[in-house]
Specification:
Number of strands: 10
Radius of gyration: 19 Å
Helix content: 40-55%
Strand order of the largest sheet: 7-6-8-5-9
Structural class: alpha/beta
Number of helices: 14
């Protein structure tokens, strides 16, 4: 009974925190309203969006004569809603979410794969050091997403009964991190830089998706956008700028852009500066996701429908 009560409270807390996209998205909605010709690009406060952030703040988009308006969100669910409603042209996503969005009637094309590198982290108060100890614990994730697919795979690998690991839907990545910091949640899947923040407060890492070479992240554009000649040219310019930003990050390192990380990802300057030292990252030019990864996403979606 106590466990059910805790789950109910955690779910309510998540729901209250995930209903909106945060102040940033409201601000950017006003920004985009002033120029309907801008390419509207959704972003999340995560490291996989860094090439977009760098291109935006360093003038690379302007060097391609491209006007980009960033639409900031803190939950991929809100990015999906914006894409389905036509208020953005490009979204950061994962292959599970993207394939589900396509199934639901929003045709997409992939601009590039990305590597969010999700990590399964456990609260320092939960005393979980191995996957089998997840029995009767709460795991924060997002339904119908790469994190949900990973959660299923991890539960299966630990030979745990699925009903014994309580999946709590927490869509907002910043709310999810706060629930870890305050000890509300036992475990969760987090991308960077939120994973680095969690590790810095003593959370243990049980799994890192990079160990499986699981490239499930992506940037996607709507087919409607690509059907318009002007918009298609904008997406082509966006892709060129993206590649230039990747080159810049790889040349100078993430620490060179610590101020951008701090501002866009809502972490301290010191934390932003430490990410590349703890986990050096390389960013690849725009490359379409592997078909094997897309097939894996489709197979999991078919199984859980």
């Amino acid at each position: 009974m106590l466990r059910k009560t805790i789950v109910a409270i955690a779910t309510l807390t998540a729901a209250l925190g995930c209903g909106s996209s945060g102040d940033g998205s409201n601000q950017d909605s006003q920004e985009t309203a002033t120029d309907s010709t801008a390419l509207r690009v959704a972003v999340m406060p995560t490291i996989d969006c860094m090439p977009v952030f760098v291109a935006y703040h360093s003038g690379i988009f302007e060097s391609e004569s491209l006007n980009v308006a960033l639409c900031r969100f803190t939950a991929h669910m809100d990015c999906d809603t914006a894409m389905a409603g036509g208020s953005v042209h490009v979204i950061p996503t994962d292959l599970v979410r993207a394939e589900r969005l396509i199934d639901q009637g929003t045709p997409l094309q992939y601009i590039t794969s990305t590597t969010p590198a999700w990590q399964l982290l456990t609260s320092k108060t939960a005393r979980i050091k191995k996957l089998p100890q997840m029995d009767d614990k709460m795991l924060a994730m997002t339904r119908f997403s790469a994190t949900a697919m990973m959660a299923d795979n991890l539960v299966d690998s630990a030979k745990l009964a699925k009903e014994r690991v309580f999946r709590i839907q927490v869509n907002d990545v910043l709310v999810r991190l706060n629930m870890m910091e305050t000890g509300i949640m036992d475990a969760m899947l987090l991308p960077e830089p939120q994973a680095t923040v969690a590790r810095s407060i003593g959370c243990s890492m049980l799994y890192d998706s990079t160990a499986d070479s699981l490239e499930m992240g992506a940037l996607a554009v709507s087919e409607k956008t690509m059907a318009d000649t002007l918009r298609r040219q904008q997406v082509e310019a966006f892709t060129r700028a993206y590649d230039k930003a990747c080159d810049s990050i790889n040349t100078y390192g993430l620490a060179h852009y610590a101020d951008i990380i701090a501002g866009e990802c809502h972490v301290t300057r010191d934390m932003a500066d430490s990410i590349d030292k703890q986990r050096p990252m390389a960013f690849s030019h725009a490359t379409k996701p592997r078909q094997a990864a897309i097939d894996k996403a489709k197979a999991w979606l078919k199984k859980v429908r």
